[in-house]
Write the structure tokens for this entry.
Amino acid sequence: MIRICPFCKAKLGLHDRYFCTSCGNNLPAELIESASHQNKIIKHESKNTPKLSIKPSITVRIPKPSRNFIEKIGTVFLSAGFSALIALITYTFLAPRIIYKDSIPYIQSGSTKQSGVMTTNKNVQNIVGQNKDVSATSQKVINPICSFSSGNILDPNLAKHIPYTADLYMESFDSKSFLKDIIDSDIVSDTKFVNFYNTQKENFMGTLGFFVIKNPTDYTYGIVLSLKDSSNKTEIEKNNNIIFFDNYIVMTTKIEIIEDLMEVSKGTEKSLVLNPVYASAKSVLPKEGKLLILPLTRNGNGFLYQLLDKKLTDQMFSIINNFLDSKLDYAVVL
């Protein structure tokens, strides 16, 4: 609708709402109402305009950079973590454990000392000879001066009669020679113990297990072995702190622990077989040798160091000193 000023006959525009901009006269009411209608139309158009210009910029443009940024960060962290994992696996399983000391390569695992000279795995294989029971991963062996006969060791039938709480365990295939060295070295001076050896040494059969238990003031010693002839076991038990169980005897220097040893032999108390140190040694050590040396606790290791102050036989001194010098947790004498 075209509006005309009634005074100057000029054509009214959108800005001529209440008066004519040409002549300055106030416009009649009918022309003002028409201007209000135009004003409503303008307001309606301005209300819709933000919906078209602002909302698309919010929903379309803003999320895209955020998503890309997170994906890039995630990719970087995933790549770094994967690289670190590969490096850790390579170092753990493939890197050789060699320590260079004074420009001489020293193989840390499987090394032993012999007469003050460190021997590598290759030297140990020469010592072992044709003994196929010694695996390439187990070189916990020593070769001191030792005249004991070699044979099967780590007999579980012996270990099941030994208390779980033992501090030191030694086992020898040559039972008579080993026990003689123990007595001659004055390691055990108990009268009954010595008398038993003197009267029954020719009756010994198979391997012998020797154990030590630390007491508050002293040590308890014990042995486990089989006898060829046990027909006079009543007499043997009468004169010694001994119990018979199956084909084995268990003898101790303290009669007070006989009942405890009986419970161990019956299986109602834990035996050495269940000791994790014994189980670990049994899984890696060769099953043949002259002597097993197995400290089970720090007290067991301390007992071995204490022996060096005793008047040991030359052979026993060589065995104990060689083992302590080797810094091994446990070992078999070959």
The mean pLDDT is 77. Residues 273 and 279 are 7 Å apart (CA to CA). Residues 135-333 form one domain. DSSP finds twelve helices and 14 strands in the chain.
